[in-house]
Structure formats: C-alpha cells, structure tokens
Design a protein that fits this description.
This protein is an alpha/beta fold. The chain is built from ten helices and nine strands. It folds into two domains: 170 residues, HUPs (Rossmann fold, 3-Layer(aba) Sandwich); 91 residues, Pantoate-beta-alanine ligase, C-terminal domain (Pantoate--beta-alanine Ligase, Chain: A,domain 2, 2-Layer Sandwich).
Length: 292
C-alpha cells in the first residue's frame, strides 16, 4: 500500500531514508485522480525504483473567481485507486507548503505569459513555484507530466533547463475517454449533455489532423462553426517549442491548442499536426490527378 506523507518534514525524512537505494520518480498531481493520472504513475514506475506522487491543490496557481475552493479533493479514493503503483503519496496542507503570506514565486518569463498565462494571469508562476518546491523536497531523478497541459509541460522543461536542476522530464500522451474527451478531474463538473458538448474540442482536433498545410489548418481554426453551448477562449496553432502562433508558411510539427468553456467548466486539449509545404501538397495533388 502507498505510504501517506502529510508534512514537508515527513517527506524530507522519507527521501533521506531512500537515498542511495535507487532512482526516484515524482508525479505531481492535484489529486482527484483518474486513469490519466494512473498512466503517469505507471510511466514513473517503469523508469524508477521509487515513485512519489504529490496530491496537492496548489492555491498559487488559481486566480480570483476560479475553482480553488470547489476543486475536488478525494484523498482516500486517490490512495485506493493508486494502490501499490506508487511507494508514497505526499498530501500536505497549504499552510505547510507556504508557511508565510505572499511566498516567493518563480517568474516564468514570456512563455508563461501567453495563451493560458494571459487568460489566467499568475497561473504558471504558481505552477512553477510549487513544482520547483516539490523538486527540491522529493529530489527526483525523473518527473512525469501529462501532455494535455502542453504549455505547462513546456514551462516546466524551461524551469529545469534554466535552473540546471538535472531532472529528466517525461511527457505522457493524453488519455481519452471512449468518446474522445480528454480525461480531466474537471470533467466531473459536467452534466451528460455538457460532456457531449465538450466533444467539440476533440472533434476539432480530429479535423485538424487531416489538414496537410498550415494555410488549411489556420483556415479551419479561424472558421470553425461556433456553438452557443461552447465558449472558446482560443483555437490556435503554435510552435511547440515557443508557443508562438505559426503563420501560413510554417512547415513541420505544429501544436494545435484549444481552450473552451462548457457549462462554465474550462477545458483544454491539444494535438501535434505535421504540416507540409504548400508547394509539396500541390505537387502531390497534380501527381495523383495525372494517374487517371
């Protein structure tokens, strides 16, 4: 059974006890675990001798009017779900993680101030701060994150690089429900009709994957049919390294990033799309038509 650790001092003692006894993987989460989280923990287990899962709803990454107070907290169910997949679960109180008011925070730079960072000011500073603190406490050799939060993953990779932390960061593909909806703890807020409306995100990604060029992809995202039940924050194609928007001449791997609200619930999703030069696509069409 997973060992439950409730305080910073307990985690420090636990980490000291396994020092020199093999590699350590960390899986940071905010709890309310589901199959998507289990995929992260299984990946961590395949890469390390010891697996620590954090279970902490981090107040620093929530802005005014967001769902910090009502975010699901299901520690007992989380422990039961994880079973023996992890060796330890760190579930501290906010007062233990941040004992002083207005704690120091990480300045995440430009990559953390666009897209999600622009819509949710301070969000990525809060994420980077808690992740850095977890890294310092757990001292992992590897840390595992989901690719659904693609911009978050990019911010954390930059954090590790710029602070010379020497931790391997692993991104795990998005886990989806049978319907195609990306698994998220916030899905529990949705009604049945809301879950159906939320398929607009994965449906748009399916269409995006069929676009051969940047011009066609950008046209799709710009003209996608609106619905009164889905409020889009953004539908964009970006460079996965910088998260800057691509233009019609872009060639290579682009990341389609989506954010929308359904029944007041904010959902995100993304997919990588390989884009060819427009000239190559035209040549391919001409060659194909010449066969008949």
């Amino acid at each position: 059974m997973t060992t439950l650790i409730r305080t910073v001092k307990e985690l420090q003692a636990y980490r000291a006890g396994i020092k020199g006894k093999g590699s350590v993987a960390l899986v940071p989460t905010m709890g309310a675990l589901h199959e998507g989280h289990l995929s992260l923990i299984r990946e961590a287990r395949s890469r390390a001798d010891h697996v620590i899962v954090s279970n902490f709803v981090n107040p620093l990454q929530f802005g005014p009017g967001e769902d910090y107070e009502r975010y699901p907290r299901t520690l007992e169910a989380d422990l039961e779900l994880v079973g023996t997949l992890a060796d330890a679960m760190f579930a501290p109180e906010a007062s233990d993680m941040y004992p002083y008011p207005e704690p120091f925070q990480v300045d995440v730079g430009p990559i953390g101030r666009i897209l999600e960072g622009e819509i949710r000011p301070g969000h990525f500073s809060g994420v980077a701060t808690v992740v850095l603190k977890l890294f310092l406490l757990a001292q992992p050799h590897v840390a595992v994150f989901g690719q659904k939060d693609a911009q978050q993953l990019a911010v954390i990779r930059r954090l590790v690089h710029d602070f010379n932390l020497g931790i391997e960061i692993v991104g795990v593909p998005i886990v989806r429900e049978e319907s195609g909806l990306a698994r998220s703890s916030r899905n529990s807020y949705l009604s049945e009709s809301g879950r159906a409306d939320a398929l607009a995100l994965s449906g748009l990604l399916s269409q995006a994957l069929e676009c051969p060029t940047a011009a066609e992809l950008l046209a799709l995202l710009r003209t996608h049919e609106e619905s009164s039940r889905v409020t889009w924050d953004y539908r964009l194609a970006v460079n996965p390294a910088t998260f800057e928007e691509i233009d019609q001449a872009f060639v290579g791997e682009a990341l389609v990033v989506l954010a929308a609200r359904v029944e007041g619930v904010r959902l995100i999703d993304n997919a990588l799309v390989n884009l060819a030069p427009a000239e190559a696509q035209q040549t391919s069409k001409e060659a194909h038509s010449g066969k008949y």
